[in-house]
Amino acid sequence: MIRSGWWIVLDSYVKVRGGYGNNDRIGVVCGFDETGCKISFEDANKHETIEFVNYDMIQPVESKKQDKCVIIFGDLLKEKGVVDDITDKEKALIRLQRTGRLHVEYLKNICKLV
């Protein structure tokens, strides 16, 4: 698990660990600072709430085929693209937004974007 907030990108999906028996929740990063980030949550009725969450309580949401994504670890840190294919259960083929090139990356090193 990635423990610090250096990988956080606006409009990325994150999983917030539930506390005290609560379930994990999925939200979208809408702001951040040195201690944590603001996360937008939407309930079943499409009502939005924004909460501040410490970095140690969040982890990236894994991307699926055709999802927009951002690379959150390695030489191409913060590079955006679209998941073209999942080559096996560990790697994704990503079409990079900036260059249009294909790049193979571990799924654990990318995060789903809005």
TrEMBL record:
Protein name (database record): Phage protein
Domain of life: Eukaryota
